[in-house]
Specification:
The structure is a single chain. This protein is mainly beta. Strands 3-9-8 form a three-stranded antiparallel sheet, with no helix packed on it. It is globular and about 40 Å long. It has one helix and ten strands; from the N terminus they run ββββαββββββ. The chain has one domain: Beta Complex (Beta-clip-like). β5 and β6 form a beta hairpin.
Length: about 140
């Protein structure tokens, strides 16, 4: 995207019926559109990364996003509103890793006012109940 005039779609943070705050489309978003990069401190996947993840999970939050086998992004440090995009088992967004950048992309056309969601694709023990819909039996 560097060097192009591609404008990212407008999005807004507000209270979510899924959980806490969420991110909503402020305009229609076409399928496959890059919406926002998942920003945060770039950290190595080591003991400190595991400790941070453990602290956040104990608070019911997931802020660390694995970039690859070596690196993760900690959105609790230097993150943007992408960290408020909630999980869903039936998401309208996905993600794409380009180098060390994580892009949230529209998996289908998204209506203005619709909440953005993606599947967190957690690796390992799933400890937080999923709230994507009433009675969802899954954990994230």
């Amino acid at each position: 995207m560097k060097g192009t005039n591609t404008r990212l779609p407008r999005i807004a943070r507000r209270r979510s019926p899924i959980h806490g705050d969420g991110v909503f489309a402020a305009e229609p978003i076409a399928r496959h559109t890059r919406i926002i990069d998942y920003a945060g401190e770039l950290i190595r996947n080591d003991e400190e990364c595991e400790a941070r993840e453990g602290r956040y999970l104990a608070e019911g939050c997931i802020w660390v996003f694995r970039v690859n086998r070596v690196w993760s992004r900690d959105a609790n440090v230097g993150g943007n509103i992408a960290r408020f995009i909630n999980h869903s088992c039936t998401p309208n967004c996905g993600f794409e890793v380009a180098g060390k950048t994580i892009w949230i992309k529209a998996a289908r056309a998204i209506r203005r006012g619709e909440e953005l969601t993606y599947d967190y694709a957690i690796i390992g023990e799933r400890t937080i109940p999923c709230r994507c819909r009433p009675g969802c039996p899954n954990k994230i």
